[in-house]
Specification:
Elements (H helix, E strand, L loop, with lengths): L3 H13 L1 H19 L4 H25 L3 H28 L16 H7 L16 H20 L4 H20 L3 H24 L4 H30 L3 H23 L16 E2 L6 E2 L3 H34 L4 H18 L9 H32 L1
Antiparallel strand pairs: 1-2
Helix pairs in contact: 1-2, 1-13, 2-3, 2-11, 3-13, 4-6, 4-7, 6-7, 6-8, 6-12, 8-9, 8-12, 10-11, 11-12, 11-13, 12-13
Amino acid sequence: MASPKNMTIAYRSFRESSRSVVLVSLFFLWRLISSVFSEDPIYSVFIAALDVLLQYSFFVITILLVTSKQRVIEALRFVLYGAVIVSVIGVVESLIKANMFYSLVPRSAMETGYVASALTEKIRGTYRAQAGFLHPLVLAEYLILTIPIAILFLKIKVGRHIKLASVTVLLLGMYTLISTGSRAGVLVFVLQLGLMFLFKLIRDLKNQRKIMPVVRSFVMIAVLFAGVPVAYNFASLALEGQSNSESMSTQARIDQFNLGLDTFEKHPLVGWGPGLAVDHVASSNVTTGEKSVDNYYLTIAADSGLPAFIFFVCMVVAYYRKARKLTAKLESPYNSVSDGLSISLFGFLIFCAVLSTFEVFTLAYVYFALLTKLEVFQKTKVHNFFSKGRRDG
């Protein structure tokens, strides 16, 4: 960060994609500001600083390290390799129906609340895979962010080992996602597939001069009409729940939302302080007695007030829109990259409404940084083209 060369790279990236980068920076800045007004300032400053260390710093570091378009794809290859490992672990765990890491953890570490919670087997009628994450829902969120990356690698020209890794993540990742027992995870993934389907249909409708896009368009429209009622019924069952525990989980989220509305009236500007939402809007698990907030938007609003909530939502939406615009502007294979990232961020935007744990948020901020760099490369290319045109003229 002290390198003048790195600072020049960062400055150019921030300038070319200023609006989005400013939203990211304002969000973390407000988190730090709100911690000063917390009921427990020391704890809140620690939590806010941890956010900066594990999320914002990776955002900046990715911007500094990705110096070419090819490095964007290299970065996503690492994401793909990680997803292969996680998917395999998830499948094995779902088959043996046991936490694979339990015997590897020292007994002394069991006293740590986080470790104890992560090692507790999550069962709702059947064993729920979590693959080393804190909770099956966190694994589901991770897969929502990574399976679209596997799909994008199937659409671009890469080596056979990358294709094999992509197929592995797609197949084993989908199996693992179902094994998490997450209704939201499966529903969001179905919505992601529907969105891919819709974008492909729109592209085919725009390209009616070739016969195959026309045929695909008719087939896709027919499937779309047939799939809407099925998706609606599935969403209804997912929200209502098929068991008492699932119904109580849905009701708990509703209760948390109602409590969250009360917090806006008491601390609308700076909230209760980072890390303290659990003390004011959480509900208790009937089985374990643990308190949790199952909505990141609610957590942010209760922690750091309405400004933090607005910054976060605007930030994710801005990067989703940026990804869609870049998909229309970039040439192959980078248009497929931005397309895949937009699908991942679409799922992330929805999943934040059902989970407040931010274990995998670092990955989302890496995606933000990659989109920032793609925009910078695109604007630089356009600028160089017009500069060359003026010189030639």
